[in-house]
Structures are given as structure tokens and as C-alpha cells.
Request: fold
Amino acid sequence: MRLLLNWVLSGIAVWIVAHVVPGVYVNGPIAALIAALVIALAAPRLGENWFRAAERRFTRFARRRTLSIITVGLLALVGRAALLPLIPVPEPGAHSRQKSFARAARIPPMNTLEDPVLISNAGTNPQQVTAMPISPARAAGMP
Reply:
């Protein structure tokens, strides 16, 4: 099972390299799997020295616990800052979830500016305020 997973991951890596590196062409994922098999059979120790050196460096880095923790934390913050133009911080609002659910269901939101609403429990916590449509009798001032 482990060899099969390793082979599939190698095929995916060959396919990605074919899309990134100019001059390397692969005609789909099956051809990438075949190329990974051929490379594994022809040169089974390809890149062994490079991976051994990289493993030594990462091991030395991982042994410094404080530096590792700070680096991972900073990497998360820098990664989030880099993604802010693509995925901005959501604006808080009472109707943000309602609008997203309405968009997903393709129905209009319940409380738009055109719909008059009666706010009960006024002066309490805004999270507990209920909104109900105004009846015609209440709109006319009748109790």
C-alpha cells in the first residue's frame, strides 16, 4: 500500500513539474504515472544526497523548539496577510449569515429595506432582538 501511495504521489509530482517547468511535457495523469515508474526503475537513488542534506537541516531546525514555534506562528500570520487581498476579513453584521444563506438558496433575504419590521425587546441585547413584520393594523396605529 505504501509503495502504491508513493508511486501515485510521484506521478502527481511529475505532472505538476510538467505544468511548471518549460520543456517538460506529459500527456495527462496516466502518462505521469508511467513516467514516475520509469524514473523510479531507472534511477532509484535519484536525489538521495539532496534529500539527506535537506533532512539534516530540517532536523537541526526542529530541535530548536522556541525558534520552530515562533517560525510556524509567523508563517501563519504572513500567510494570512498574503491571502487578505484574495479572501478579505468578513464584515460583522447581523445579516451576514442570512445573506450568505439566501444567496446559496437563491431566495431574497427576509429583512430588506423595503420590508417594514417591528423590533420587539427594544433596548436589550442586539443578539436577542426579534424582528417581525408589521401588521396593517399596527402600522395604522391601532393596538
